[in-house]
Specification:
The structure is a homodimer of 392-residue chains.
Chain A (H helix, E strand, L loop, with lengths): L6 E6 L6 E3 L20 E5 L39 E4 L2 E5 L9 H14 L5 E4 L3 H13 L3 E5 L5 H8 L4 E4 L5 H12 L2 E2 L13 H16 L5 E5 L4 H15 L8 E7 L4 H8 L23 H10 L2 E5 L1 H12 L11 H9 L7 E5 L22 H4 L2
Helix pairs in contact in A: 1-2, 1-5, 2-3, 5-6, 6-8, 7-8, 9-10
Chain lengths: 392, 392
């Protein structure tokens, strides 16, 4: 029932009639519809008529290859990504993506993007990221035997700096404004395959959201139904769009009868998708204020997030660091320690205070080990404690 | 096919004819056979005749409740523990236990041990641990709504100190030699349920290995056969014994025809099970030298590890920090970043250099984020890098 990829071609999200071959992946956005202000991403089109619907009768589990007909070719070997648990959490369900190979959702994207690098015959992969995305790309490149360059910034947490360097990639901390010109130079001159964004509004890797859509398949199998609403931490909205696309495919294939509302939970320090939706723009760029939620702190939004919120009847929700800290505490006090950015989904649900006609899923994206400040505190030793010192 | 627990009673590992009711769990070892030098643990006996063998036809996945007939009662709610991937890795398979709720194998034990605390009506749980075990106990206690006291030492890595405190437990760093008397006092005076060891040689919680035995069930389902050999990082050998017990149950139930050889991979800085096996003792205590593998660095061994190695036809293998570092690097360079202690299984396999008649599994227990030194290094920023600075 699973088998070869049924991916047919790339299609512009700026003009659905503009189609391109599946390879090479158009990592600089749609060449036909992008302008100096707005870049439109590409989407992947499949031969849906050939999909065996028994694909959705299997048990969810690790390794995205179980969904191979509905993914681009998976040339890169698995690290056992996906198949993460859905944990009941009061009135919602938490999809714990910290349970991936590098302890964030990014592994789903990188299995697919590093596969594209291999299928393209690239001599390596390059990524500009100071956190989860960079480490995950490094891990999948290492697994596939490809060199990787990670353009990091100096301000990620010390433990994350070690994480980025663990997998043997060439990791270089460079000043923030130099990362994207360097990325472009590495792509142009070394032929490395880029797995992060290169455009004025976000387009990223055209295959990236394909990895994330497997979350929708898993949620359907885990719940036994389609959730009424999904709240996701949103930076560039690749996760948001990917999950939305997965549910639209289940609907298109006749497996399900409805689709969920998608809530883009963005930091109040930025919020480019909220701005684009409010202004009726296909995508937007915003000024970014201070925030500790560095995993979702981007000034650059993309068209994918706008499409997912608009077409699903959802909303963009802005959450403050204080609201994320509350959500982080709520999760940790029930046994789930998440990175601050990873709690934006629950924080958005708590802020919205809305009832839904069916299950609600909050996606939690990443382990608490990756937070700013982790490892920075020191705790005193009690030399001669009494029982009173120990009672909670 | 799964259903209520078929656990019947506790049985002494010092005298198989000495049986005790299932509750209370005898957390201070067998009262009949233990001496001042050797403490014997209890084991859990089940009504195996009532087990539906279709239990072993299900897909492996998160939540130990899928194995409920063969576990003590699971009163504590799940965090989605278990169902970790088995990653092909050259000539071996790596069972990646960093994919549990608190990113180590300990979650399997704590689901079961915190359940015992709830079933016993204890007002809280107490644990002496500076690392994975303490954080995992804190997480499961939090999830179950029970207070937890963690008696930590001051020398665990800073990021792990934050991890221990994330779940809202009362965490107190106390001098090493005071931890066990305090633990005993908290048990005796507050009635807290202990989830770590209290005896002269290790006995630990009698239900602990029951959680670990689910790894054996998963390995059988993931491989489609019984491995020829299993290499586990070994401190107290609860993991080693648990996996062995799971395979003996599969054999006893007629599901499988053979059992694997079990290899106890211990730090060369200590190695109490290696010593006991060499000396023909039921358990041993050793002097502990310096090692960075703090997760497996114990001077106190237990009878369980001796039984697992002896009855399986396995061996104890001592590995140096240098050998673990090599194994850690080998794993990370293929996309799996493990805590140093967590690589002892692979390090043991590499040291032994032996061929086996069937698949070999190395259990990797924990995320690299928990290592000593993580977050302690600083990396320079390249202000004006050229392409030559970036090429791997």
């Amino acid at each position: 029932m699973n088998g070869p990829s049924l991916a047919l071609r790339q299609r512009s999200m700026g003009d659905l009639s503009a189609e391109f071959p599946l390879f090479p992946p158009l990592t600089r956005g749609c060449p036909k519809t992008s302008t100096d202000e707005i870049a439109f991403p590409l989407d992947v089109v499949y031969d849906y008529a050939k999909v065996d619907r028994r694909l959705f009768e299997q048990a969810p589990g690790p390794d995205l290859a179980r969904w191979s007909p509905l993914l681009p070719p998976l040339d890169a070997p698995t690290l056992g990504e996906g198949g993460t648990p859905l944990v009941p959490f009061g009135d919602v369900h938490v999809k714990d993506e910290s349970r991936n190979p590098t302890w964030s959702h990014k592994d789903r994207l990188n299995r697919v993007a590093v596969s594209a690098a291999l299928a393209s015959g690239a001599p390596g992969v390059v990524v500009a990221s100071s956190g989860n995305h960079g480490a995950s790309a490094a891990a999948y490149a290492a697994r596939a035997g490809l060199p990787a360059i990670v353009l990091a910034s100096a301000d990620s947490p010390p433990a994350v700096q070690a994480f980025l360097r663990a997998y043997g990639a060439k990791v270089v901390s460079v000043p923030g404004e130099k990362r994207w010109p360097l990325l472009r130079e590495i792509v142009d001159r070394l032929g490395y395959h880029p797995v992060s964004n290169q455009t004025v509004t976000h387009t990223g890797h055209p295959f990236g959201p394909e990895g994330y859509k497997t979350i929708a398949y898993e949620l359907f199998l885990q719940l036994g139904e389609v959730p009424a609403a999904v709240f996701t931490p949103t930076g560039y909205a690749e996760l948001l769009y990917g999950v939305w696309k997965g549910f639209t495919e289940l609907h298109l294939l006749g497996v399900t009868e409805r689709t969920p509302r998608m809530f883009s939970c963005e930091t109040a320090a930025g919020g480019p998708h909220a701005k684009a939706l409010a202004a009726g723009l296909p995508a937007a760029v915003v000024e970014l204020g201070p925030t500790d939620a560095y995993g979702v702190a981007g000034s650059v939004g993309g068209h994918r997030g706008v499409v997912a919120v608009r077409d699903s009847g959802g909303e963009a929700v802005l959450v403050t660091d204080e609201e994320m800290r509350r959500a982080q505490r709520e999760l940790a006090r029930a046994g789930l320690w998440q990175e601050l950015s990873g709690t934006a989904g629950l924080a958005g649900h708590r802020r919205l205070r809305r009832d839904f006609d069916g299950p609600v899923v909050c996606i939690a994206t990443s382990s608490g080990f990756k937070d700013l400040g982790v490892g920075g505190e020191r705790y005193p030793v009690l030399e001669d404690p009494t029982l009173d010192d120990l009672i909670p």
